[in-house]
Amino acid sequence: MSKGRVWNKGKRNGGGGPPAGTGYKEKLEAAQKASGIEIIDPTNPINQVKRMNRDNWVERPVRPNQSRPKE
What we know:
Elements: H1 24-35
């Protein structure tokens, strides 16, 4: 069976995809060119780096060694 006559034209089978020039990569490149430089807002808590609050951490108690010494 030739490539064009297959009933299940999928992504890997040649054909069946979107028309040329309307792909995801072209749209992504156009969006990046249009947006330019991204402005980062330092007041946003997502963009801030702070120390972790370790005041409320619970430490695991040490397990006693239950192995007996060899005789």
